[in-house]
Amino acid sequence: MTKTFHYAMLLALCQAAVSSAWANLSYSKRKLPETTLYAQDRRHFVSSSLSVIGSYSLSGTTLLTPLPGHATITPQQQKDKDNIVKGYNRLQYLLDNWVEKTTVCKTGQETTFGDKCERTPVVVMEYLGFKSTSDPLFKADAAMLRLKDLVPSDREVDFYDAVDLFAQNAEEASSMAFVSSWGEANPGGGKDRVQLFIERAKKNVIASRDSLKTVMDILDLKP
């Protein structure tokens, strides 16, 4: 069969896979959070699509000539890969120097409690890309999704799960950091509340770092 016929068959197969995958989605959206539904729907879609394609392949039909071992990488994709590695290393540095980086000392000025220095996780927003468009992790989830074509087919579900978890934990860490900036000023606020926000933010940063590492492993990127 000609190459044109193979591509036509692949297109028809993909369309059938998409229709079949989405037709079988049956989740209760009233009982699950939106982010959970999104992740489950996506996992179901990917696994169902791969199942249809796999069954077609097993029938003895070769869809396409295998791609070269190394797919062509666009300049944007190379930049995205570099930023993911830089962002991962920055998060690791933040965690290795957590107390120092989450402590702010005010020269010649006392804090609310009369101290020269105070703990705050506000710096977390900077390291997670929420402060500057030039930060390596600025819109990192979108950057990772631009690399989806480089993901091995048997790691697609792991890849999308890692991107979801990164986005979720990065957002929660940023929220904790923002709330903590008003911790002492709020009624009932104090050092203990700020410390609570710091610990929560740290857990989210650790989870974000781990998700980036998963993506790096899938894409064969080195720290």
Q: What's the layout of helices and strands?
A:
Elements lengths: L2 H21 L10 H25 L16 H22 L1 H4 L1 E3 L11 E3 L3 H5 L12 H6 L10 H25 L10 H28 L5
Antiparallel strand pairs: 1-2
Sum this structure up briefly:
With 223 residues, this protein is mostly helical. It has helices spanning 3-23, 34-58, 75-96, 98-101, 123-127, 140-145, 156-180, 191-218, and strands at residues 103-105, 117-119.
Can you give a write-up of this model?
The structure is a single chain. The chain has 223 residues and is mainly alpha-helical. The protein has a two-stranded antiparallel ribbon with strand order 1-2. α1 (3-23) crosses α2 and α2 (34-58) packs antiparallel against α7 (156-180). It is elongated and about 55 Å long. The protein has helices spanning 3-23, 34-58, 75-96, 98-101, 123-127, 140-145, 156-180, 191-218, and strands at 103-105, 117-119. The model is unreliable at 3-7, 25-39 and 52-69 (pLDDT under 50).
Query: What is the makeup of the main sheet?
Result: 2 strands, antiparallel
The assembly state of the depicted protein chains is single chain
Question: Element order, helices and strands?
Answer: HHHHEEHHHH
State the helix count.
8
Estimate the global geometry from the Cα principal axes. Answer: elongated
List the keywords:
mainly alpha, single chain, 223 residues
